[in-house]
Write a structure and sequence with these properties.
By secondary structure, the chain is mostly beta strands. The chain folds into two domains: 36-188, no CATH class; 198-303. 10% of the residues lie in helices and 50% in strands. The chain has two helices and 21 strands. Strands 1-5-6-7-8-9-10-11 form an eight-stranded antiparallel beta barrel. The protein is elongated, with a radius of gyration of 26 Å.
């Protein structure tokens, strides 16, 4: 009887330690998270669904150091805009940061080298981006993303990109994803950039609110307003709020509406022309209170980027 009890006790101890060892192993699984990655190379693969032709291109070469994941129209979203040796990504604890500036939420599926990432809240409509990790180690990461179908010059295309990042501080100019032999190499891609729609032209700009008049009282806040996407802004890098920038039917004016603006203390809307964005100044703009905000204010802003 004592022998049986001793045997049972030993089995229990072994089971406990075995479970602990397994748990520690799972905690040490390889991950891309917690490392700042910088973009060093990229390829884009295109399939003409009309002719069946499969071609691939480099995003960069010795002269061309910028590109876009949307090769047939261009995208103003920071995730889609690529600059060799400049673009950085950082994943950690559900937050994805681009270029040490804008952040997005993400979820994952799988674990270790099989873990895949889904980024949410991508402007302008809060869409998602699937980021497929092809392979990685402590210094180099290869990914596939922006799988898309699009029409261009009368043909339908299916295309996607593969990008190579290295750990910040690690030097590997030759690092790249191996080419897919089903596709024919055609050199460096020529990005087709369509004009940015008016309602998105504030995206990525920052302005100093130098003054506003509340009635007869001038206020000089010197707050910085950052239009981080086509629908969100922040003041001095704080919590984001929403805005709209929409064209008035029948004329060339746009309604600029700031919701819950802490600098002004409410919701305000005013009419502007697009030229102020290039001129970099907004002088004595009348903005009227809306959605429970009463009165009106006059606003002065100066562009800083």
């Amino acid at each position: 009887m004592k022998l049986n009890k001793l045997t049972l006790f030993l089995i229990t101890i072994i089971t406990v330690f075995t479970s602990c060892e397994k748990y520690d192993f799972e905690q040490d699984l390889a991950t891309i998270e917690g490392t700042e990655w910088v973009l060093v190379s990229g390829k884009v693969y295109t399939e003409n669904l009309t002719t069946g032709e499969k071609l691939y291109y480099d995003h960069f070469d010795s002269v061309k150091t910028t590109s876009n994941l949307d090769i047939f129209g261009g995208s103003s979203v920071d995730i889609d805009m690529l600059e060799q040796n400049v673009t950085t990504w950082y994943f950690y604890d559900g937050t994805f940061m681009v270029n040490n500036l804008n952040t997005y939420d993400y979820n994952t599926q799988g674990s270790g080298i099989r873990k895949q990432y889904m980024v949410y809240g991508v402007p302008p409509n809060g869409s998602s981006r699937n980021i497929e990790v092809i392979e990685f180690d402590d210094n180099v990461m290869h990914i596939k993303l922006y799988e898309s179908n699009e029409s261009h010059n009368g043909d339908n295309y299916h295309y996607f990109s593969t990008l190579t990042f290295v750990r910040v501080g690690y030097n590997c100019p030759q690092c790249t994803t191996p080419p897919n032999s089903d596709y024919t190499y055609m050199g460096t891609v020529t990005n087709t950039v369509e004009p940015v729609p008016g309602h998105l032209q504030l995206t990525g700009t920052s302005w100093v609110i130098t003054r506003y008049d509340d009635g007869m009282t001038p206020v000089y806040p010197n707050d910085t307003i950052n239009f981080v996407s086509g629908v969100s802004y922040d003041i001095n890098g704080s919590t984001s709020n929403t805005y709209s920038f929409s064209n008035n039917t029948g004329n060339n004016l746009y309604n600029l509406t700031l919701y819950e603006c802490v600098t002004f203390g409410g919701n305000y809307s005013g009419q502007v022309g697009l030229s102020f964005i290039d001129e970099g100044e907004l002088n004595n703009l009348t903005m009227n209170g809306i959605f429970g905000t009463s009165g009106s204010i006059s606003v002065w802003m100066e562009r800083i980027n």
